[in-house]
Amino acid sequence: MNAKPLEGIQACVFDAYGTLFDYASAAARCGDVLGEKLEPLNNLWRRKQLEYTWLRALQQRHVGFWEVTGDALDFTLDTLGIGDTKLRKRLMDLYLTLDAFPEVRETLHQIKTAGLKTAILSNGSPAMLEAAVDNAGIGDLLDAVLSVEEIGTYKPHRHVYQFAVERLSVPATRISFQSSNAWDAYAASAFGMRVVWCNRYGQRPERLPGRPDHEISTLADLPALVGAVS
Question: Taking the complete model, does pTM exceed 0.90, yes or no?
Answer without folding.
Answer: yes
